[in-house]
Amino acid sequence: MTARLAGALLLALPARAATPQPLSLLGISPGKGEAVLSVPMQILLLLTLMTVLPAAVMCVTPFLRLTVVLHFLRQALGTQTIPSNQVLLGLSLFLTLVIMQPVAGDMYHQGWEPLENGQLTLAQAMDQGVRPLRAFLVRFAREKDIRLMVEMAREPAPRSPDDLDLKVLVPAYIISELKTGFQIGAVLFLPFLVIDLVVASCTLSIGMMQLPPVMISAPFKILLFVLVDGWNLVIGSLMKSFYQ
After folding, report:
1. How far is CA 77 from CA 68, 191, 197, 219, 225, in A?
2. Alpha-carbon distance 104 to 97, whole Å?
3. CA dihedral sign, ordered 139, 144, 146, 147
4. What secondary structure letter does DSSP report for 23?
5. Cα angle 204, 206, 211; round to 5
6. Are 199 and 220 a contacting pair, CB within 8 Å?
7. Can you give the pLDDT at residue 24?
8. Residue bearing the bigger pLDDT, 148 or 108
9. What is residue 10's predicted lDDT score, i.e. its pLDDT?
10. What angle do CA 110, 114, 119 make, to 5 degrees?
11. Based on C-alpha coordinates, what's the Rg of the chain?
12. CA atoms within 13 Å, Cβ hemisphere of 163
């Protein structure tokens, strides 16, 4: 009797319950006929992505331009370590989150959600999810830099921006952002440089050779920056430059 009852229960179970379901650390259900990576391989890929993520955030987001400009601004003010590196990096990071929020949302809806629901394969999801990022990079990468990287990679000339590979587009975007950041930094330096020249001329004319001009010009530069509400002007201009 017991054996018959056990046999009936086994037959009543669904056939798919007998086959073990593949484990996924990311919660992605694989599509039909798609190979599933083992758990150790998934852990290895996760650790690799976590290692590369900081560099990706710095290189393919506005974080690069923001940090360059803020560094130039601190050097122009002559305040040495004020604000500290942690404050500048934190400010750049949160401003980057504000700017990249629409792009990240589009990448999630176009790539990650269909992959998580099993509607797309991993390759298809990557191709769909990278399109918003490619559109963002194309907006700020100069054509001259893109042409240079295409020639260096020895690839055929793209017919449209959608044909650009990320290995070409990312370096072109980095070079363009560095150029833009240095241009903004040079403009920020000019008014403070004028103050340094005026103070140095005054100290030399009255014979104050032993007193460094930087010690006198630093309070005037900080006062000027505070009076014109410099932080609001600089951050506002930087943010607007990404929405034009």
Report:
1. 14, 10, 14, 9, 8
2. 9
3. positive
4. P
5. 60
6. yes
7. 52
8. 148
9. 37
10. 135
11. 28
12. 7
Q: Which two tokens stand for residue 117?
A: 């629901």
For 69, counting Cβ atoms within 10 Å of its Cβ (0-12 exposed, 13-18 middle, 19+ buried), the class is: buried
At residue 197, the 3 state secondary structure works out as helix
Q: Which two tokens stand for residue 76?
A: 């122009």
Query: Buried (b) or exposed (e) across 157-180, using 16+ Cβ within 10 A?
Result: eeeeeeebeeebbbbbbbbbbeeb
Tell whether pTM > 0.90: no
d(CA 237, CA 222): 19
Taken as a whole, the chain contains a residue count of 244
Q: Closest by alpha carbon to 170, among 156, 152, 185?
A: 152
Q: What is the pLDDT of residue 6?
A: 43
Residue in the structure block whose two tokens are 């044909």: 163
Which two three-digit tokens encode residue 73?
């601004």
In contact, 30 and 42? CB cutoff 8 Å:
no
Q: What are the angstrom distances between the C-alpha of 75 and each of 81, 134, 189?
A: 9, 33, 8
CA–CA gap between residue 173 and residue 61 (Å, rounded): 9
Rounded to an integer, what distance in angstroms lies between the CA atom of residue 91 and that of residue 63? 10
